[in-house]
Amino acid sequence: MDPQGSGHEPEVAPPRSARPRVLAVAVQKGGTGKTTLAASLAVAAAEAGERVTALDLDPQGSLAGWAATRETDTVAIDRLQPWEIGQLPEILDILAQQGTTLVVLDTAGSSAGLAPTLKEADFVLMPVRPSRLDIVAARPTLQALIGLGLRGRFALVLNQCPPLPSPRTSAYAAQLRALGVLAEPGINHRVDHQDALAVGLGVTEYAPASPAAEEIRALWAWIDAKMPVTTG
Ligand SMILES: Nc1ncnc2c1ncn2[C@@H]1O[C@H](COP(=O)(O)OP(=O)(O)O)[C@@H](O)[C@H]1O
Ligand SMILES: [Mg+2]
After folding, report:
1. Which atom of ligand 1 sits closest to the CA of residue 32?
2. Which of 41, 69, 112, 208 is the most buried (most CB within 10 A)?
3. How far does residue 51's CA lie from ligand 1's centre (Å)?
């Protein structure tokens, strides 16, 4: 990460800006859709007026790879190396000074570096597929969040859902909703998500009028309402 960019150091430090809001997309399991949702939510948030920086914290670098194929700079994207994760608070300060209002963190599907990442998050979105294995695999992340005192600041989103009616999906949704930990709407399995990411776009850029785009915009609106209002 080169948060200073190539500009010259100002002689007088600029006034400290409000800290950006931080959305972490995290769950200790691969393949649930963290990168897919992080990318499209970052784009949808930018379209809704946020100045977004997305940070790829996953050594696999999928989000950074997506960024490399993007031809627009509507979302700033950077990669953090594992040893930089401890510097997140300072990095957030720098991003604030640069005018970022929302930081989206895409994380690895493991516990490595997760606690310091979650600690900085205003909200943690945990994508899971509507399957018992995924929901069980989310438990350690849930326990870590509760241990960090982040109750009320996280939710699971059902991703890659089969077309409705799907009794299994509805049953999981009802259980999670009853526990107050369901982000809505759920996101259906749609090839638009795969095709958008393949060409460096968010799904709202790739197919703006599609159901996939509608779901992502609605999910961003849901998350936006759960996060603190930016102050200062
Ligand atoms: N809603 C969706 N519809 C269709 N395919 C999806 C959806 N979400 C994720 N995928 C696909 O699932 C796979 C894993 O997604 P990815 O975002 O890489 O997961 P993670 O970052 O959690 O490992 C990818 O092939 C991706 O294209
Ligand atoms: Mg990923």
Report:
1. 22
2. 41
3. 25
For the Cβ of 35 lying below 6 angstroms from any atom of ligand 1, the answer is yes
Tell me: cis bond preceding 165? Omega within 30 of 0 counts: yes
pTM of the model: 0.93
Q: Which atom of ligand 1 is nearest to the CA of 106?
A: 21
Task: Find, among 140, 176, 187, 202, the residue nearest to 32 by Cα.
Answer: 187
Q: Where are the domains of the chain?
A: 21-223
The pick from 36, 134, 156, 192 for probing ligand 1's pocket by mutation, whose C-beta has the most ligand atoms within 8 angstroms, reads 36
Report residue 97 as tokens: 């000074």
Domain 21-223 has CATH 3.40.50.300: yes
Nearest C-alpha neighbor of 63 from the set 97, 22, 26, 10? 26
Using DSSP, state whether 188 is helix, strand or coil. strand
Residue by residue, pLDDT tens for the chain (232 residues) are 554 444 444 455 445 568 999 999 999 999 999 999 999 999 999 999 999 999 999 999 999 999 999 999 999 999 999 999 999 999 999 999 999 999 999 999 998 889 999 999 999 999 999 999 999 999 999 999 999 999 899 999 999 999 989 999 999 999 999 999 999 999 999 999 999 999 999 999 999 999 999 999 999 999 999 998 865 4
Q: State the distance from the centre of ligand 2 to the C-alpha of 78, rounded, in angstroms.
A: 14
